[in-house]
Design brief:
The protein is mainly alpha-helical. The chain has one domain. About 90% of the residues lie in helices and about 0% in strands. It contains two helices and no strands. The longest helix has 28 residues. It is rod-shaped. It starts with a helix and ends with a helix. The relative contact order is 0.26.
Length: about 55
């Protein structure tokens, strides 16, 4: 498993937490940061998956 997949998954989780906290406290900026972190994590996870596929894992 490529390290990008692990890091990407962690960013998705971090983004979900930020988004939930932002919604709970009414902080639109924090909520938006959470959504951005989730999107970045998903992309990084996809990149890691492609690297794994190219290596034949």
């Amino acid at each position: 498993m490529d390290k990008d997949r692990v890091i990407g998954s962690a960013k998705v989780v971090k983004g979900k937490v930020k988004e939930a906290v932002g919604k709970a406290v009414g902080d639109a900026k924090l909520e938006t940061e959470g959504k951005a972190d989730k999107a970045e994590g998903k992309v990084q996870n996809i990149v890691g998956g492609l690297k794994d596929a190219l290596r034949g894992e």
